[in-house]
Amino acid sequence: MQADYTVVTAGALRGEKRSRTMAGRKIVDGIIYSLVNVRTDGNRVLCATLNEKESKWDWEVFESRF
Fold first, then answer.
1. Does the pLDDT of residue 52 top 80, yes or no?
2. What range defines the domain where residue 58 resides?
3. Would the CA dihedral through 47, 51, 57, 62 be positive or negative?
4. What is the pTM of this model?
């Protein structure tokens, strides 16, 4: 059995297509560790992730629905 998959590195916009032959095995191409920060003041929620390729934070703030 052939498995086709795409590998996307940290901060990349497009992935690299790869293919491997599977003989009852699982495919693990690599592990990416990430940090997600979530903060709230009870009314607003801030979520931030570190873009490791560019060494900058991407963040979003939105209103809490509670």
1. no
2. 33-66
3. negative
4. 0.47
